[in-house]
Amino acid sequence: MNSDGSINKPWNLCTLQQVEDLKTLIRISPIWSTGILLHTPIAIQMSLAVLQALAMDRHLGPKFKISAGTMMVFVPISTAISLALINRFLLPTFHKLTRTSPTPLKRVGIGHVLTISSMALSALVESKRLTLARTHNLTGNSVVPMSVFWMVPQLVAAGVGLAFMFPGQVMFYYQEFPRSIKSTAAAMVGVFIGIAFYLGAAVVDFIRKTTGWLPDGINEGRMDNVYWVLTVLGSVNFGYYLVCSWMYKYQIVENKELISSNNVYPNNSSNEENL
């Protein structure tokens, strides 16, 4: 302390509120880390799905041929439709039956399951595509006689998963972040999505260098194995998420106006009610 009563080195002292805010961030960090591993398979799928589409029959009718990148539009379309259905029908029905609304962590958990399902569907479709390629002795990136619309279920599953994940993640961080940095809560979702895409690029590069699953000619590779690995990794991450969610305790929400009337999240005092 200085002679006038001021703090000599303010950076060496923290208020009680600052300490509590740091403890809150530390408690949230395990769940935050699961978001990175959740979005990494999606980032990889977005890249590999275009390669799949390039080697499949993309004709829509006798004359019209769609581009491979156009297939990705099924993800945002299914997300938009699912968001409307969830908010308009699913949540009100759930509330009428249980007298409660699903917590943010439950929504994210459903997103985990749908993302894992999307990876498994991608593996099955790619396995069928490779079987046809070998049956017809097609090499390189030759087009396989298999409609590109076989990819729609995997893309729709990914889109519906995002419809559960994004709102759940944003609500969770906004509700649980310290008041002093609550305005940055929504940005945390964008942060781990960005990290996931960089990590996804690194994973693809590692697979290309260490295995023969992703050669220049995908008909000679084993892209289905990549999807199966992503399915396993997603399942392991989901198990990690379940543990983190079970151990997490929601903070007491003082400002009830932060929660919409259709999404009331209980302030659980027991771990079993979190997920």
Automatic annotation (TrEMBL):
SUPFAM superfamilies with a match to the protein in the record: MFS general substrate transporter (SSF103473)
UniProt entry tagged with the keyword Membrane: yes
Record-annotated membrane-spanning stretches: 31-54, 66-86, 107-125, 148-174, 186-207, 227-248
Keyword entries, A-Z: Membrane, Transmembrane, Transmembrane helix
Location(s) in or outside the cell: Membrane
Family: Belongs to the major facilitator superfamily. Proton-dependent oligopeptide transporter (POT/PTR) (TC 2.A.17) family. Belongs to the major facilitator superfamily. Phosphate:H(+) symporter (TC 2.A.1.9) family.
Alphabetized Gene3D superfamilies for the sequence: MFS general substrate transporter like domains
Membrane topology label: Multi-pass membrane protein
Gene Ontology MF term list: transmembrane transporter activity
Broad class of where this protein is predominantly found: membrane
Gene Ontology cellular component terms for the protein in this record: membrane
Protein name per the record: Uncharacterized protein
Protein origin, superkingdom: Eukaryota
